[in-house]
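Team,

Forwarding the record for the chain on the shared tracking sheet. I've put the sequence and predicted structure together so nobody has to dig through attachments.
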Amino acid sequence: MSTMSGITRGMLAAAVAALVFTLAGCADMGTSGAGKVTLSGSQEVPPVTTAASGSGTIMVNVDKSVSGSVTTTGVAATAAHIHTGAPGQNGPVIIPLAKTGDGTWSVVAGAKLTDAQYDNYKAGNLYVNVHSAANKGGEIRGQLKP
């Protein structure tokens, strides 16, 4: 068995492997979750009968910053937001979404969750809601999953 100042090659190899594993894990440390969201009328509370739908990606980083967008079809949307609320429950608006294209709604620049909102996100208690004139409380909704 060969040694290098009291360290065996096996020990050195194990240390290098541990370092590589640790660094690989650090590559994703800035992101808590980039979740696909699918919006439908059936997820509204109470459910809404509509042909409208939507989908997108909302990213929540460990620093609690939020980014992303959703795209809708079949709805003349008047507003879109991220709300606090468990599945089956309505809750308050926490982040407005801005209309950035035909049927596209994006998280406003600089959006950030509070500690309590971030805890709700991790628990699956945030959702995207798209409102219309016909359904002022929301026409399509999708729960954010961490």
